[in-house]
């Protein structure tokens, strides 16, 4: 593997995932919120360096897209690593509020509307 | 499964994760999407980049393509904290038409969209209007003036875009926070009116 800018930018992040480009689970969206489990569960494997970086960034709840931007990694790479962390019990994940076009959530919409009005 | 049990459970001492929702800011290349996200977001817009080889081609394994030059598609986004329990994210969609496959993923679960239009070249946002119309995703059209000026009334823009009467057209200045906020409020009013019906 070369480390030049042209290929490095693509290849290096995916080296973090062992070459995988697809997550093992599909439940991470851009606005899924992840939080590190503190203290980590008994018997959890020792996190690798890059996993530790992620865990530090999600000591408080943070959205997947924000995490990717802060780590300067593609979302797809971060999601694969989050899958591992979730399976190891090192993070929790909260899915976004479901939006169903056919049955809109009036209460939710009004809350957003009021919040915008306060800006 | 361990994963689903872990969903939404809090950890002692850490604030509970908020509910999250998103709105898309769409429109042609260079119409001011990131400007709008930035003017109303509580954080400087963040950027994520996705390698196109992965996003576009559905590559499962990167072995052997190390030499391929990586093209990335960038997406800027911002955040508005509504309350301790609710956070709104604003995603600027990639402007280039050839990256539209990303929009489908982005559009899933969105409350709605703002189609931003550059008053000097409205045709650059035609495709965005079309995209949301076809998918029945509620949207408002926001006309971004040039240097804050609006030479055409909203109705002229509506006509030139052949917009149905139920799509609101708002004149705005994407550089100004209150103006961008009012565009988002127009979208929420549209969504609320539809929910009440």
From TrEMBL, chain A:
<protein>
    <recommendedName>
        <fullName>DUF742 domain-containing protein</fullName>
    </recommendedName>
</protein>
<dbReference type="InterPro" id="IPR007995">
    <property type="entry name" value="DUF742"/>
</dbReference>
<dbReference type="Pfam" id="PF05331">
    <property type="entry name" value="DUF742"/>
</dbReference>
TrEMBL record, chain B:
<keyword id="KW-0547">Nucleotide-binding</keyword>
<dbReference type="GO" id="GO:0016787">
    <property type="term" value="F:hydrolase activity"/>
</dbReference>
<dbReference type="GO" id="GO:0005524">
    <property type="term" value="F:ATP binding"/>
</dbReference>
<dbReference type="GO" id="GO:0005525">
    <property type="term" value="F:GTP binding"/>
</dbReference>
<keyword id="KW-0378">Hydrolase</keyword>
<keyword id="KW-0342">GTP-binding</keyword>
<keyword id="KW-0067">ATP-binding</keyword>
<comment type="similarity">
    <text>Belongs to the GPN-loop GTPase family.</text>
</comment>
<protein>
    <submittedName>
        <fullName>ATP-binding protein</fullName>
    </submittedName>
</protein>
<dbReference type="InterPro" id="IPR052705">
    <property type="entry name" value="Gliding_Motility_GTPase"/>
</dbReference>
<dbReference type="Pfam" id="PF03029">
    <property type="entry name" value="ATP_bind_1"/>
</dbReference>
<dbReference type="InterPro" id="IPR027417">
    <property type="entry name" value="P-loop_NTPase"/>
</dbReference>
<dbReference type="InterPro" id="IPR004130">
    <property type="entry name" value="Gpn"/>
</dbReference>
